[in-house]
Amino acid sequence: MGAAVIQGNVGWPRRLWIVRHGESAGNVARDRAEASGAPLIDLEHRDADVPLSPLGLEQSQALGAWARALPEPDRPTTFMASPYKRARETAVAVAVAMGCSSEDVVVDERLREKEFGVLDRYTRAGIRARFPELAEQRQLVGKFYFRPPGGESWCDVVLRLRSMLGDLQRNHAGERVMIVAHQVIVNCFRYLLERMDEGTILAIDRNGDVPNCGITEYVEAPDGCGLVLRRTNFVAPLVEAGSPVTIESDRPKGAR
Asked: Which residues form the signal peptide (predicted)?
């Protein structure tokens, strides 16, 4: 597939994987609420504490088995994760498969899910019924810049991830880093690393959701001055393990 290079004056990881967490209990609850036309997603936990579903754990273990089977020079050496439970559980499953422990997973709050503010837990139908003015504003402004009250826009997420890239250059040059986070985080990293504009990344988002445990991979450029996109939405680890591939979004499209 096409590749893009980002230039820099300091080092970059030799390889970077950005992975969406395995299927969560929230993904399952969201689909159930949308299918029934309910206004709210019925969740037992706050978003940060939503765990993996049994299938999500299976997917995470398949991802770990794939990483363990890579040639030693190509395996992840550094694990980073969103503080949200579903992402941490996914990262820990991979780290343990690699012979590491949960303590080896670096949790960074900048990798957290996009914050949805007053729209949190609402379905598309619920947003239209409860917040018609916000639904209209989002339609006008577009999801990249629309910020719900108490929440974030995609642009806000991009701003916090810019400092993550600086840390990767300063502190993880030459390493092989696996980041486990969320769908919007994956797309916002792509926006930054591939120097996209608003229209390009939103077209990618409209084309389909990032699969659970789907891998977006970058490798160091031959001149050592950037990262080159190798592949996106790579799900062969799940297919090879016989684990179902799921692509449920974390939130209704009206909230994302």
From this structure: none
CATH number for the segment(s) 15-26+53-113+145-241: 3.40.50.1240
Backbone angles phi, psi at 37, to 5 degrees: 80, 15
Residue type, 49: D
Residue 172 one-letter amino acid = H
CB 143 within 8 A of CB 256: yes
Q: How many angstroms separate the most distant Cα atoms in the chain?
A: 54
User: Which tokens in the block code for residue 227?
Assistant: 């990262």
Mind listing the pLDDT tens digit for each residue in 83-120?
999 999 999 999 999 999 999 999 999 999 999 999 99
Three-state secondary-structure class, residue 82: coil
Q: What predicted TM-score, i.e. pTM, was given to this entire model?
A: 0.92
What CA–CA distance (Å, rounded) separates 254 from 34? 11
Rounded to whole angstroms, how far apart are CA atoms 28 and 57? 14
Q: 46: closest CA among 83, 21, 90, 81?
A: 83
DSSP label at 167?
H
| Distance of alpha carbon 173 from alpha carbon 54, whole angstroms | 35
How far apart are the C-alpha atoms of 125 and 121, rounded to whole Å? 11
